[in-house]
Every structure is written in structure tokens, then in C-alpha cells.
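Holo prediction. Input below; ligand is NAI.
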Amino acid sequence: MSYDLIVIGTGPGGYVCAIRAAQLGLKVAVVEKRATFGGTCLNIGCIPSKALLHASHLFEEAGHGFAKMGISVGTPKLDLPSLLGFKDQAVEGNTKGVAFLMKKNKIDTYHGTAIVPTAGKVDVAMADGTFQSLETKAIVLATGSDVAKLPGIEIDEKRVVSSTGAIALEKVPGKLVVVGAGVIGLELGSVWRRLGAEVTVVEFLDRILPGMDLDVAKSFQRILQKQGIGFKLASKVTGVETKGKALKVSVEPAAGGDAEVLDADVVLVAIGRVPYTEGLGLEALGVETDKRGRIVTDMYFRTNVPGIFAIGDVIAGPMLAHKAEEEGVAVAELLAGQAGHVNYGVIPAVVYTSPEVASVGRSEEELKAEGIAYKVGKFPFLANGRAKANDETDGFVKVLADATTDKVLGVHIIGVEAGEMIHEAAVLMEFGGSSEDLARTCHAHPTRSEAVKEAAMAVENRAIHM
Ligand code: FAD
Ligand code: NAI
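Structure of the complex:
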């Protein structure tokens, strides 16, 4: 068979790229080695973790949140197999949805492992044991990422788990030690804490959520501590002894010093993800990768080998599903002769805990490092009518605007529904808007989003409710 485009990998980058290319009239095929479409995100990432976050949040609300509103439901009982079943259904619904979209867009699908022997050719070792040799004008590599391993610590996905094992634990661990205070550690740590685990997070740096605005990260850490999550910052896990009933986790100060031993039933290793290119044959092809194993591309997603492109987690940039999707659309449009483009300055990031943490644009630390003079407008949810009515007042909105032009450079929110609220800031920034534009936009009352408007007003010290 011969195609205009073969996409390898059907995560958010790959499947979106295939659909957009098919919409633009290209003859497209995808190759996926997993049994289902949707990649990390739909099968073992975004979707299952969010289903667990949703269900565990409601479990906690039923136990602690309802009573204060005069709703008595007794002590909620956890049925973990059903809760995991709810998560599995969410995965199935989403992956089947992608299969439907492949058919709808007349995209040929190959289930198997792709190898690229040369530009213009893709060989597929099919899941059914057969072999297919395909020809194509262009190849998009969208093979995603895999769990970063901690040297000397073996992940068995039962007691020492990555996120993949942590979304499928058969029992609530009595004690869960999480290695890494990044997005996965805090989201899945929250899930198991809500379901009854005692959670301790060990983080190498002296702060949580590196990359996020420090003020936000500090405040968020206090909120998580109030919820019962323990933190050991500036610390490293040097070993996990798996003999015996309890795991023995050795923790040392990052700067060196005496080790302490923590008992754990489960250890979650969440220290980042690494690009996945295994078995593609990139070395023989001469496709350039960087020191971190990421495929090197130019602004048109071209690798150094003509006809071979790459997008998503396997190239540089934040490892986020929506970033991969934007790149998928852009490269498809470029291949169809259009002007595909991704604005990397406006990619929102959300931590789906309760409250949520959301940001778009630059942090204060980044602005300082770049020597950009900025103004800050901050507004707490404690002063927002809707947040008070719902008794969900943790957190704040922070707007960072250029000191000279007033252009909004970053917006950071901690609060319930922050992940939804961040998008008005993203749209504003996409259009190059100012804090004045945001401050003068009428926001419905009573909504949590009024806090965004008030934070923008606070840039010029004219917030009304503060
Ligand atoms: P992937 O989704 O990794 O897909 C790559 C696909 O390529 C896989 O299906 C793989 O089987 C296939 N493949 C690889 N090699 C071959 C080959 N040789 N032949 C055939 N197929 C191949 N991001 C968010 O934005 N929001 C979230 O809430 C979020 N939550 C997450 C939670 C967890 C627990 C994890 C682990 C990740 C989460 N992410 C989240 C990150 C997100 O999953 C990734 O950024 C996203 O999946 C990257 O998409 P991708 O298309 O680049 O690759
Ligand atoms: P991460 O990069 O977010 O966090 C890893 C953390 O581990 C960092 O704080 C790092 O300092 C720490 N660390 C590294 N080595 C360590 C060590 N030896 N000991 C202790 N701490 C150590 O990576 P994470 O959480 O594994 O997530 C992987 C990727 O998946 C992220 O890039 C993220 O973008 C994506 N993701 C996104 C989600 C979202 O958008 N809501 C949810 C989950 C994952």
C-alpha cells in the first residue's frame, strides 16, 4: 500500500495529526503497537488518572464535605474494584471514540510495531504475526514517552509502581511513598490519600512542581499539607528494599548526609518521563536525537532526514497531550501546503488536584530571569462571592503584565475549577491582550471567574472586593 502520510503512534499527537491530514484530503494510515488507540494519554495517562481524581474527590466530599452543607449520607464505603471499573470504562469510551474517528475519516489502521527502514517506507510487524511493508510520501513519528527509571530501583508495577501501576492498585496502600513532587506524584498521591492512604512525597528539589510559579507552588504545598500529604523536600530516595512485608525506603538529604528509612506498602516512582523511540530504527536512519533522547526537529517539525517529521512527547517541549495535539494539527497542515504553527508561549498547564493549579505563560521567576519588568495583580478566592457561597475559598488568581505595555505575560491560578478558568487567559494572551482588556471585560456574577477580572484590576490597584 502507498500513502501520502503514515503516522506512527496514535496518542493525542498521532491520532489528531492523522485526522487533520485526512480532513485536508491526504491518504493517511496510522500504525499503533498497543491494542487500542489513544496512546499514553487515553490508556494509562490523562483519562484514567482524571477518572480516579474525579471519583476519589467525590468520595472525600461525601465523607467530609457534604455534612457541612447539611447533607447527611453516613460514612461512605469504598468499593475499589467498582471505582477502578469506572476508570476502565472511561478509558474504553475514549479509546473506542478514537477508533470511530479513524473509520469516520477513512484512515487505514495497522496494529503492530513500526520500523522505518528508510524515508518513504514503513515496515510493520503486525500484532497478528504477519508483516506489512508500506510506502508513503511522509512519515510523522509520534511515539510518545515512557516512564523515567530511578537507577537501582526496579518497578514491578505491584509494590514499586510507575503511574501505570498506580492507576490500578488492587488495595488502598496503608502507606504510600511517592518519589517526585511533579504532576503525577501530586495527582496520584492525592487520589490514594483521599481513598485512605498515608502519603509521603519525597522530592529532590527544595520545592514542589518545578517550572510552576514559585509563589503558587509554595501556597499549593501548604494546601496539600493541610489535606494530610507529607513532604520531604531536598531529599532523594537511594534505595527500596523489597524483602519482607513492608518496603523499606532509604531517603537521604539531596546534599548528602544521614539516611532515614521510611516504611511503605507501595512506592510510586514519578520522576519524569523520557522520549520513546525504541525499535524505530532511528540510529540506522541517521535521525538526530539530543542528549535527552528527544528527536530534534525544526519549527516545521522536520527531522534532519527529509520526509520524516516528529511531534509530541518524543520531541522537545512540555510533555502535555494538548501540546502534542497542536503539533499534530500544525504538521498535518504543513504537509497539506498550509501554514501550520504552534504558539509555544500560550500552552496552558493544569494539575487536576483539588483545588486545581493552572497556569499559562510565564512565571515570575522566568520574567525575572529574562529581565522583563512586570506588574502583579493578585486576588484571593476568599474575597470572591461564589467561592464563599460554595465554601471553596482556597487559592488565588495572579496576573502578570508587562510593566510598560500592560500586555499579559502570565496567569496563574490555584482554586477549584482553575483548569477551566485558565482558558480565558489563554485566549486573551493568544490575541496579545492587556490586563486592562481583562479588567474591562464584563464577567457574570456570581462566578469564580470574576476573580480573574479582579486580579487583572489589581494590577492597577483597583480591585473592588479587596
Ligand atoms: P503517546 O500518547 O505516548 O502515544 C504514543 C503512542 O505510540 C503509544 O500508543 C505507543 O504504543 C505508540 N508507539 C510507540 N512506538 C511505536 C512503534 N514503533 N510502532 C507503533 N506504535 C508505536 N497530559 C496532559 O496534557 N494532561 C493530563 O492530564 C495528563 N495526565 C497524564 C497522566 C499520566 C499518569 C501520564 C503518564 C501522562 C499524562 N499526561 C497528561 C501526558 C500525556 O499523556 C502525554 O503528553 C501525551 O500522551 C503525549 O502524546 P503523544 O501522542 O506524543 O504520545
Ligand atoms: P515531572 O517532571 O512533572 O516531575 C518529576 C519530579 O520528580 C520533579 O519535581 C523532579 O524534581 C523530581 N525528581 C526527579 N528525580 C528525582 C529523584 N531522584 N528523587 C526525588 N525526586 C526526583 O514528572 P512526572 O510527575 O513524572 O510527570 C511526567 C510528565 O507527565 C510531566 O512532564 C507532565 O507534563 C506529564 N503529566 C501531565 C499531567 C497534567 O498535565 N495534569 C498529569 C500527569 C503527567
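The pocket of NAI (ligand 2) is lined by residues 150, 179-185, 187, 202-205, 210, 236-237, 270-273, 318-320, 350-352 (CB under 6 Å). That is the main takeaway for now.
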